Amino acid sequence: QVQKLRVAGNLLATGLILQHKEQPFFENLSKISGLNVEVDYKPMDALGIKDTEGLRTLRSGLFDIVSLRLAQVSRDEPFVLGLDLVGLNPDYETTRKVLAAYREPFDKRLQDRFKAKLLALWPFGPQVLFCKPEIKGLADLKGLKVRVYDQSLAKFIEQLGGIPVTLAFGETQQALQRGVVDCAITGASSANSAGWPEVTEYFMPIGFQAAIQAYAINLDTWNKMTPDQQQKLTAAFGKLEQDIFDYSKELFDDALRCNVGKEPCTTVKKYAMKEVPVSPADQALVRDAVGKVSFPAWAEVCEKSYKGCGDVWKAALGGIAGVK
Amino acid sequence: MAISTITIGFLVALATLLFSVPVAVTLAAAGLIGGLAMIGAPMVQSLGSVVWGVQNENSLTAIPLFILLGELLLRTGLADRMYGSLAAWVGRLPGGLMHTNIASCALFAATCGSSVATSATIGTVALPTMRERGYPMGPTLGSLAAGGTLGILIPPSVAMLVYGSITNNSVGKLFIAGVIPGILLSLLFMAWIMLDSLRRNGTARAEQPIPLAEKIRQSRHLLPPFAIFGVVMGSIYAGIATPTESAALGVLMALVLAAMAGSMSWKALNHAFRNTASLTGMIALIIAAAFILNVTLNALDVPQMLSRAVTSIGVTPTTFILLLIVFYVILGMFLEVLSMQVTTIPIVYPIAMALGIDPIWFGVFIVLMSEIALITPPVGMNLYVVQGVRTDGGPIGDVISGIWPYVIMLILFTLLMWFVPEIVTWLPEKMS
Amino acid sequence: MFIALSLIVVGETVARKLFSFSLQGADELGGYILAVGSGLAFTIAFVERAHIRIDLIQALLPATARALLDWVSVVSMAALALLLAYVGWLVVDETIEFRSNAPTPWATPLIYPQGIWYATLVIFALVALAAAVRATWMLLRGRSAQMVAEFGPKSAQDELAAELEDLNKR
Ligand code: NA
Ligand code: NA
């Protein structure tokens, strides 16, 4: 018979990826997967549920499938943020390796603690730097106020001598305009859609983090399915993951061109920001941050709720990140 | 689920409300019962997160602060002294002190969100003098009740904070959007008073002229409210402060001004805090209950379904707004405003958005509908307040007879706003 | 408490504007203060009978029926308060189990603010429950007048009387 699935999607403001990939996928899930399912899909905020509650609503069974915003749900499980430490994902190639290597421990943790199974992992894309005052490299962030969104990034900015300021994404454009912050970090495409290039002049395409998201399914729902159905669902999500990954990269490359006024520019608005070239030294600075700042800080928090998680992380990602 | 089921649910909830069951209880019960029936146990599991989410919501911090600001001005007497100063300036117009009523309410509204306190304070100061000088009772009481409703249109406004939190819109923009309609509506009210007084010919009144020097001397009492309004709205408009920050600034200014005027006592402060806590508790519980209901409504697809139904039968935005005006005027007769807002906004807002109506404009529209609800019998808070402060023992029919012109003006003004939306949208657009 | 909230918020605004210095997380702290403050305010509003009821029809009914509606109101409010305390416990229980930390630079262990918040919900539940027991006792003893006096809706008249009394004192 028809199986009903309640799905909590990413936030409405997520924009292009939600409109063009996530929403169509869930609305056509029965056609795409060949499963006899009826999907009730809604962005999580449209339901009046906060994104920090993702893991809890998944465990309680309020939703069958939940789009997990890792930075937010790390409130209840810091381990999930281990795949998005500052410096770990400088580009899409590395991110692909990181996701592949972390998938298994991530899934195991979800199953042990949250009665949930991982279905897919994907990145919004490199989180890049927008500044109002002129900068030539990361060293110039010294003394500047920089909008950040999580603890790991705040620590890194502090290390550079900058002043981290936490602001919600929606408040950042105005904060830049009125000088509450000098610089801000987010995805290249979403910053463009939110009009950041109107209020900043310098654009530095260096990837601090990758803003990774996940889809997971409640284990009770999963276990009710036959192995054949499970396989079909897994295949559908595998394809979605690949699809979003490519689209995310396409959006990122396009936004890089649009922000600085280059052609072709097709997905977002064209601006004429000045591009700050990423020097090898700055690249190394960000990459080294994993071992120096972000991993130790993260591991300290993570160990409190998950003994031995530092070693699990090292076994999976130590090689890629160059952390022993 | 069919539209008929929803309608039945809505009517049952309405009946429960009318039988004096606390509003918060009715909303939460509707949410819980609907959720349990359709989703089951996980619904209960998630309620705690919803309640914590509402109470921990930073943008709602502005509500207690703005209530406290109004309370401080009231309890320390800064508000009542304003009346005399304004009387000196506008008393000469035909209609005399009735203009002062409107102007005082508007100015007081600029610092506070409570219409009960506004109407009660201004009414108590105004009524004895006006009765002595033979002002007709109906129009006088009407001007007081209607003037009080400006409290939720002219920012700061708790009604707008509630709308902003339910619909996720910028409260700063909503506040700024209320300024021009607030001023225009005050002027419209005053124009009507002038016309009406001239029409009554014999009773067209104006106060005695007052020397300019005296006017200026009197005006010092206008400084505190103007200064506070200037700082609160100015900081929001200039983008220096969020609504919460500007409210905090206003509270500190009010404390300093009251201390300077020597009118601050522990008793007044204590009273202000107690009232603030009590009002905050009432509002927060209703909002929490409304969010519980909201989760159920959305999980059951109710707003989406209604909005599909409305758009599919080809209702134009204009027809929709006209229908909503009728709906709100009728509902507003029986419901208290906060209850009316939290029960209807989650349902009508998605429809309005589907029809392409501007979300900020729609917020101001909801506020105007709430103003009407405040002064329409049988449930109209401001009517009872004004009736209560009068000392001549006349029937409440006097108040009701004086209120109709204002209800009609509010409806006409809403229509004007629909055809000239720039009244609302121009100022907030200039802001960013 | 609200004054403290204003001071913190103003301090943060001024500091951010003038000294380009940021008290990381004034927003976060403000949110916690609101959670605890509004939780306490539930009880204060309950004691002051400020939770809104629409007494349009009730006012027209005979005394016994009015008392019955007041009883329904108190008991249903107690039921809501108990429900809040119960679902609040579910949240706190998970927070303890997951050792949740706020996803902010402060990484506040959530149990601190949520623990205090939960205590305010328990106070509300206890006070409302006590009132419900008292109201039930009155109902069984047939003390309608006392019920209306203690638990009846606070009418616009009552509120006004309080306002006027205050005004006369100034
Ligand atoms: Na106001
Ligand atoms: Na009414």
Automatic annotation (TrEMBL), chain B:
Superkingdom field: Bacteria
A single GO molecular function term of this UniProt record: transmembrane transporter activity
Keyword Cell membrane: yes
Predominant location: membrane
Subcellular location, record wording: Cell inner membrane
Membrane topology designation: Multi-pass membrane protein
Keyword Repeat: no
Single GO cellular component term: plasma membrane
Transmembrane segments: 6-39, 60-78, 98-127, 139-162, 174-195, 222-240, 246-266, 278-297, 309-335, 347-375, 403-427
Matches recorded under InterPro entries: DctM, TRAP_DctM
Keyword set, alphabetical order: Cell inner membrane, Cell membrane, Membrane, Transmembrane, Transmembrane helix, Transport
Domain TRAP C4-dicarboxylate transport system permease DctM subunit, chain residue ranges per copy: 11-423
Primary role: Part of the tripartite ATP-independent periplasmic (TRAP) transport system.
Subunit relationships: The complex comprises the extracytoplasmic solute receptor protein and the two transmembrane proteins.
Similarity comment text for this entry: Belongs to the TRAP transporter large permease family.
Protein name, UniProt field: TRAP transporter large permease protein
Species: Zeimonas arvi
Organism lineage: Bacteria, Pseudomonadati, Pseudomonadota, Betaproteobacteria, Burkholderiales
TrEMBL record, chain C:
Tripartite ATP-independent periplasmic transporters DctQ component domain: residues covered: 6-135
Keywords, alphabetical: Cell inner membrane, Cell membrane, Membrane, Transmembrane, Transmembrane helix, Transport
Main subcellular localisation: membrane
Pfam families: DctQ
TM region(s), chain numbering: 31-47, 68-92, 116-137
Stored InterPro entries: DctQ, TRAP_DctQ
Membrane topology (UniProt): Multi-pass membrane protein
An annotated GO cellular component: plasma membrane
Subcellular location: Cell inner membrane
GO molecular function, one term: transmembrane transporter activity
Chain's role: Part of the tripartite ATP-independent periplasmic (TRAP) transport system.
Complex and partners: The complex comprises the extracytoplasmic solute receptor protein and the two transmembrane proteins.
Family, per entry: Belongs to the TRAP transporter small permease family.
Name of the protein described by the UniProt record: TRAP transporter small permease protein
